[in-house]
Structure formats: C-alpha cells, structure tokens
Specification:
The protein folds into four domains: 62 residues, no CATH class; 93 residues, Roll (Nuclear Transport Factor 2, Chain: A), CATH 3.10.450; 103 residues, Nuclear Transport Factor 2, Chain: A; 117 residues, Glucose Permease (Domain IIA) (Distorted Sandwich). The strands form six sheets. Strands 16, 19, 20, 21, 22, 23, 24, 25, 26 and 27 form a ten-stranded antiparallel beta sheet that branches. It is built from nine helices and 28 strands. The protein is of the alpha+beta class and 507 residues long. The N terminus and C terminus are likely disordered. Keywords: Hydrolase, Signal. InterPro entries: Cell_wall_metabolism_enzyme, Dup_hybrid_motif, M23ase_b-sheet_dom. This is Murein DD-endopeptidase MepM/ murein hydrolase activator NlpD.
C-alpha cells in the first residue's frame, strides 16, 4: 500500500516520496514527470462541480469562479460587427449611368426598350401635345342596381348623347328593364378639342332577348336600327331519378336552384318531402325562351310531377282561375286554406253578445266584434268573396258586406272610406276600405260581423275553409294543358333560323 504523495522540487521534474506500509523499510525518492503531476492534481481537484449541489461550500465557489472566468473569456472574444474600412466606389458619370440603366431590366418592366438610346437629331421636333386616338372602343356592362344611363355615363358618354339615346330607345327600354349583365358595345369618336367629351359614334346592346338595338352616327345625327330576333317558347322538361338527394339529382339533370326550390314547395303541399327516397322519379317543366342566337331564359315552374316507388303518382299544374294563379292537382283540386284572415291590424275591444250601448244608453245585442285601430288603417277581406253591398247602412255608417259562398258572409262597418264596389270579386287580404268612425260610433274602430245563412253568428266561433276547384269547360282545358306538358320530350325543341333570314326593321 502507498501513502499520500508529497510534491517537492527537483531538477528534471517533481519528486514523489513514497513509503511502504512496513515501518522497517525506509522511504525512497521517486522522480515524477510534470504531466503525471498535473494529472494527479486534476484527479484530486474538481474545477467544474455541479453548482446545484453543496451550495456555499469551497467546491461550489470554485465552480462558480470557473463559470465566471469562462463567461468573461467568451465576452472578451466576441467579434466586432462594425463596418470594415474599404475603398469608396467610383461615382458614375451621367453618360455611364444612362448606358448602364439602358441595359437593365427596369426599362423593360416600365414598357421601354432595352439597349443604348440614341440622341435625337435635327429631324426630331418636339410636339405641342400628344395626338389622340381617332376612336375609342369600349365594352361596358350594366351591374346589379345600375341603370342604363349610369352605365353609359361611366363609360365616358356625354350627358347630351345619353339624353339623345334615351329619347330614341325609350319605347324599347324602360327604367330597370335591362337585366344586370347586359353588355354595351360603345364606340366614341374624335373630339374637336381636349375640353369637350368624345361624341358617341356607335352603340350596340341587347334590349330584350328578342330585340337587338344598334345606334350609329350618320352626318352628325344618331340613327337607330332595331333587329328582331326569333324566339322559341317551347317549355323545357327536366326528368330524372332520385339517388341520395332529390335536390342533387335535379341539379345534375340541369334544373336551376330557383326552379328546384319552387318544385319542392309545390310537392310539399301534397306529400311530405321525407317520403321521397332513392328510386323515385321527378318530372319538372319550366317556361323557357330560347333565341336563335343561342341565348335562353328559364322562366317559372309550370308543372311538377313525382312518381314514387310505392306507386303513388303526383301531378301538379299551375293554372289561372278567376284571375288568380295557383297550383292544382290533376283532378282539378287546388290548395286548401283554413281559417279567416285578420280584417284589420288592431286589438279586440268588444266581443259578441249583449252589452250596454254607449250612445243609445241601454243594453242590446252586439252582433259582431270590435277591433280598435287608428283612423285610416286599411281593412282587409278575411277570405275570397263577392261584394254584396257597399255604401251607407244606417248605424253601421259606411258598410261593406261580402258573400263567401256556402251561406257564409262578413260585414265591415264604420269605415271612413270604401274602396270596394258592389259586384266586385275580392281576394283574401285585399283592401276593401279604411278604418273610420261613421254611423253610431264613439271613435275610430272596425265593427266586424259574420253571417251564416243571413243570421249573425259569433265571429270567434267561425273558421272558413276554402278549397279551389276547377269544373266544366275550364277543367277540360286544364287537363288538355296538363297532357300537352307531359308529352314534351326532354330539353327544349328549338329550330335554329339563320340570321340571314331575318328582316331588319327600317330605320
């Protein structure tokens, strides 16, 4: 076993005194190299201890000193990022700059030529002003909420020319008749000087699907040419089979979203849409106008059919009866409407039955109900009917009586003004007069009565139910129209007529 080594001074290196464990053996002196000495010292002394342990000890402070020394050395050795001194660049002369600039990409980006620019010669003379184009050709469009005059003004047409154009096309183009997206092909001519607008030389646009208008300036005066365009009005039939969705199947077959929405509302009047499933077949016929030039306009829904897998068949046709358009089944039965409409926008102030009359001063039968409403408020027909009476009627004042069929009738009293006339056919919700205080009345209100076979009944106990029905010759015409639409083939049948066959209207 060896004991602790001691360091001493030596000529060639350190001297290490070692002693054996036996006391009888004298120590002997061994020479040690300096590398062994450093290695021995480094193993005994830890310069980089863990600073998280033994806080405050001599070993911890030794590690802290080592860390501080390393940080100091790193900061002192940080390089400088300042500018390095260098020789300045030579400033190019104006001629050198122009030569370099002409060969860069910048002139190309600005629309100029590349290469060296030559100096002007004596043959070059400056112009007093830049020459203008003799004509300008513009293409404009009418936007949503835009007007014909505003679109022309936006394109640079003068106000005088706009007034002239509107005066010449006034019989063909009314306010708001041009649909958004209508294209305007405009040609502006040469102007006398820069202080006046360019004159309108030509204007072409499509006034309607069946009419094209062209204006040309001849001898200083605008002249108009109307070109009629032949139109095929054959309805468009769209059929298909429902897959996962009726809407998607109809869209894939070519129906517009608006047409499909209308079709679904019509079908929903008869059956629940939840019952429509894969395998059911839909049948849609819409009004369609197709011009010989290829443009087309899809109109309203005319017929909606459905063939279900269970065998149920539904045919709905739009038909105008008594001046009112509505949907009817193939049997001629229309939609059913239940309940009365409100005769006025007001609140109930007096009910049906015996009451003390505020003017006569005694109790008597109140044969209707009263609605409080402001003076002049509109009064509406509660259901379709015919005006049986309209005029002055004793204590009722200005009075209107409607006959609704089936022995039912309604009366409207104390009006300030009557707008219906005897014998007139009115519709549900149509205005027949205005609230007033004529007759035996203490203030503006509506006295409303309901009659069953001529006798007054409590209006709150009556619910009208109306079902439209087509009969007689009208039913025959209805079924003929239905058969005609169902016989159409898919897609529009259009006979294209050459444009050379058109007769151009005279100027």
């Amino acid at each position: 076993m060896f004991q602790k080594a001691e360091f001493g001074q030596g000529g060639a290196g350190a001297v290490l005194w070692l002693a054996r464990s036996q006391p009888s053996v004298p120590p002997r002196r061994v020479a040690v190299d300096w590398r062994d000495r450093v290695k021995y010292w480094a193993e005994d002394v830890n310069l980089v201890p863990d600073l998280g342990h033994n806080l405050g000890s001599l070993t911890w402070f030794r590690g802290l000193a080592t860390c501080a020394a390393l940080c100091f050395v790193a900061i002192k050795l940080t390089p400088d990022f300042g500018a390095l001194p260098a020789a300045p660049l030579a400033v190019p002369s104006p001629s050198d700059y122009e030569e370099i600039r002409s060969q860069m990409v910048t002139p190309l980006a600005l629309g100029a030529d590349s290469g060296r620019h030559m100096a002007p010669t004596d043959a070059v003379a400056p112009l007093p002003q830049t020459p203008e184009r003799p004509t300008l050709t513009l293409n404009a469009a009418i936007g949503a909420g835009d007007s014909f005059a505003h679109a022309l003004s936006r394109a640079g047409v003068s106000s005088n020319d706009i007034e002239d154009v509107l005066a010449r096309v006034g019989s063909d183009v009314s306010a708001g008749s041009l649909t958004p997206g209508t294209r305007l092909n405009i040609t502006l001519g040469r102007r006398a000087n820069r202080n006046v607008p360019r004159p309108l030389d030509a204007l072409d646009f499509r006034a309607r699907l069946d009419l094209a208008i062209a204006l040309r300036r001849v001898d200083g005066v605008l002249q108009i040419t109307r070109t009629p365009i032949r139109i095929d009005d054959t309805p468009l039939r769209i059929r298909g089979t429902v897959s996962d969705s009726l809407y998607r199947a109809a869209r894939a077959a070519g129906a517009t979203p608006a047409t499909i929405q209308t079709y679904l509302r019509v079908i929903a009047q008869q059956i629940s849409l939840d019952r429509i499933g894969p395998g059911d077949r839909f049948d849609i016929v819409v009004a369609n106008r197709r011009a010989e030039t290829g443009e087309s306009e899809v109109g309203e829904l005319l017929y909606g059919g459905l063939r279900m897998e269970g065998g149920k068949t539904l045919d709905m046709l739009k038909w105008t009866s008594d001046g009112r358009s509505q949907w009817f089944e193939a049997s001629g039965v229309g939609a059913r409407r239940e309940g009365m409409g409100a005769p006025v926008s007001g609140h109930l102030t007096s009910s049906f039955g015996m009451r003390f009359h505020p003017i006569l001063g005694y109790s008597r039968m109140h044969a209707g109900v009263d609605f409080g409403a402001p003076y002049g408020a509109p009064i509406y027909a509660v259901n379709d009917g015919v005006v049986a009476y309209a005029g002055r009627h004793g204590g009722h004042g200005n009075f209107v009586k409607l006959a609704h069929g089936g022995g039912l009738g309604t009366g409207y009293a104390h009006m300030s003004r009557i707008v219906a006339y005897a014998g007139e056919r009115v519709r549900r919700g149509q205005v027949i007069g205005y609230v007033g205080s004529t007759g035996l009345s203490t203030g503006p209100h509506l006295h409303f009565e309901v009659y069953r076979n001529g006798a007054t009944v409590n209006p709150q106990s009556v619910r009208f139910m109306q079902t439209a029905q087509i009969t007689g010759r009208e039913l025959m015409a209805f079924r003929a129209r239905l058969a005609q639409l169902k016989s159409l083939s898919n897609g529009p049948a259009v006979a294209v007529i050459p444009a050379s066959a058109l007769k151009i209207a005279s100027r």
